[in-house]
Amino acid sequence: MRLDVVTIFPEYLEPLNVSLVGKARARGLLDVRVHDLRQWTHDRHNTVDDTPYGGGPGMVMKPEPWGEALDTIIASQEGDPVVVVPTPSGRPFDQATAVELAEKPWLIFTPARYEGIDRRVVDEYGERFEVRELSIGDYVLAGGEAPVLVMVEAVARLLPGVLGNAESHRDDSFAPGAMADLLEGPVYTKPPLWRGRGIPEVLLSGHHGRIARWRRDQAFLRTARYRPDLIERCDPAALDADDRKLLTELGWAERPDGRFGRTAEGMEE
Ligand code: JFT
After folding, report:
1. Residue 133 Cα, ligand 1 centroid: separation in angstroms?
2. Distance between CA atoms of residues 37 and 186, nearest Å
3. Where does the pLDDT of residue 20 fall: very low under 50, low under 70, confident under 90, or very high at 90 and above?
4. Does the C-beta of 65 come closer than 6 Å to ligand 1?
């Protein structure tokens, strides 16, 4: 997969040289190219921003440097890229988005600053290519570079050959598969006693059936507490009798449509 990133802060993308993404690059699985947007400016001050039409606070990124940057990068290779625009006003970036993007041969990320990029840039490239305006979550950042790091890591670890067996992603929270739509419970390793704290006895029992059940219960306890929205949209067909019993004990009840909802008791803490 080829990834291009166009930014006024190329140093911000240094983390792409290390860890999982850095290793994928070193192994030839990922071709990452970070470009400084200012190389496509032509004035003495390398201006990339200007005041907003209609007035208001802040500055807007000028369209010309982005147009020249994207034209140059797109012309550098055969084929059509998908252009990924991080923005707080985008569609939510989630695991399904990561899976879709991981299937593309070429992504161009356009992390911006200020109040964003002149709208005509997205309109222009949206007519010629697939453009995805994406937000990594409902909080306010100062620009798109951190979202690019997040999205690239989520995509890169899905590429064939990037993860080793030890870290493979069959059971990930949110990944399609066994534990889909549940948060994972706690994990433990050696030593068996640390600062007076032991390991839940069931994990030392060697009883695989009981261990699997305990892990599933822990996943439900955690999900019900931190992500009740995930329980509410859980497919009832995915719930066994033990799951239903646990949810009932936690103050959840089966609704007419078969899904579970919180009862008044379940709303405490
Ligand atoms: C924030 C952002 C994402 C994502 C891109 C650009 C400028 C600052 C800003 C903040 C609020 C309103 C602009 C960005 C994000 C996220 C991405 C930019 N800002 N307008 N913030 N939070 N989840 N993706 Cl360009």
Report:
1. 11
2. 44
3. very high
4. no
